[in-house]
Amino acid sequence: MYRVEQLIGGVWGAGGAGGELTVHDPADGSPFGTVPVATVDEVAKAVEAARELATEWAATPTAQRAELLAQAADAVAAGAEELAAATTAEMGKPLGDARGGVAAGVGTLRQYAELGPLRGGRTLHGGVDAIDFMTPQPRGVVAAITPWNDPVAVSCGLLGAALVTGNVVLFKPSERTPVTGWLLARLLDGVFPAGVLSLLTGGAEVGAALAAQPVDVVAHVGATATGRAIAAACARSGAKALLENGGSDPLVVDAGVDPGWAAGQAALGAFANAGQLCTAVERIYAHRDIAEDFADALVERAGALVVGPGRDPATELGPLVDRRHRDQVHGQVTAAVAQGATLRAGGVLPDGPGAFYPATVVTDCRQEMTLVREETFGPVAAVVTVDSFSEALRCAADSPYGLAATVLTGSMSHAQRAWRELPVGTVKVNAVFGGAPGGAAQPRRGSGHGFGYGPELLDEFSTVKAVHLEPPAGGHW
Ligand code: NAD
């Protein structure tokens, strides 16, 4: 059993008077770690302590901060196996995926270590005797509030970008993956000056207390409802809200594509990480011409997945993060079936320990069903049959979210329409996952706002100052 400690003002083991949480392994329900809960007062003290260091850290040369970040990347790489095992034990994903998440996090830290010092400002052309320029500066104190579904990759992005741009950071990992967050914070704190990074733990109330503090940025990756509460808190405090939130990504399957191949793409998009990805395929619009063959092939793929604990190397589909979440997923599936959808695979709560949920295929779905409109965040493929590509695009665009979308089509004109018309941050054609390194998008609608990834994240954590210098009294210096 791990015993997580908080890091406040450079001191490990500080605070925790708000009680204690226990994290359980979703594969078998066994306890994995205990976590202190911060009080509102502790959160306030942590912010105060961080603020005291902000000026000094901001004045540290960028190259020095970047060198420390590069060392932090090495430290995380050295601790990768423990981080991956903790991720699997806390949220259930197959160990290979967890290792991939840690490797992605290390890659992001290395990228920001390289890119941080390369960023510059602009010189301006003012009066001949004047010096005019624009220069990026750190924003100051950043609260980074992160989710559980890919805890290392997501946290490394926010922490790396905020630290290398000269901000002090208060890190609040998810209460569902606090051991992973604590292990990561320990590795980073081993490299950075004491107090530059703080770790606060606990549940939603700790995140809310942090978001209400006089910080400069609240960067939140997580659910849309949380993002909205954080945006409201930031409106009151004047902090900048950077929000990467939920999605309900559509997959459009056009007429004329190979239904077997399309089913492979759909299965990957809907069932990877047990559907617990912000960019998971949440709803599928299949053209009537191929809908039946596509559904048959998808049902076959759902049934073929190897289900088991994430630590078993053969496992392809691990458990959901916990039973509370499983109840939500199952509730959406049963409601859709009660409203006339057809259950073609899965959809039944298994006996036995843990929070397992089978890969589920539901056809004859309709646009207005909650299963289609809302984020399900489980291994569920909801299929709506459509009569034309135009209808598919219209339905795909009709969503409270705007994260990403995928279109499977052999038609270049359909592909062009898709990327031009869909109101989402990322459009993928003929591949549910993938994309060039360094890509970053702005989510839309309920999926958040601002760049949560890529080189642009460095700009999000910086502010720009315009400077005008003139010699005194119109003379000389
Ligand atoms: P969540 O919003 O419930 O929790 C995320 C973090 O916010 C946790 O640390 C939690 O304690 C904290 N929190 C909860 N309520 C809060 C409040 N009122 N004020 C401040 N902080 C609060 O989300 P989750 O369940 O951990 O994560 C799943 C969600 O994250 C899904 O919706 C998924 O789509 C989304 N997500 C989005 C991206 C992206 O890049 N867009 C990436 C990963 C996950």
Automatic annotation (TrEMBL):
A GO MF label: oxidoreductase activity, acting on the aldehyde or oxo group of donors, NAD or NADP as acceptor
Keyword terms, alphabetized? Oxidoreductase
Q: Name one Pfam family in it.
A: Aldedh
Q: InterPro entries, alphabetically?
A: Ald_DH/histidinol_DH, Ald_DH_C, Ald_DH_N, Aldehyde_DH_dom
Q: Which domain of life is it from?
A: Bacteria
Q: Where is the Aldehyde dehydrogenase domain?
A: 19-467
Annotated TM spans: none
Q: Is Repressor included in the keywords of this UniProt record?
A: no
Which named protein is this? Succinate-semialdehyde dehydrogenase / glutarate-semialdehyde dehydrogenase
Native species: Micromonospora matsumotoense
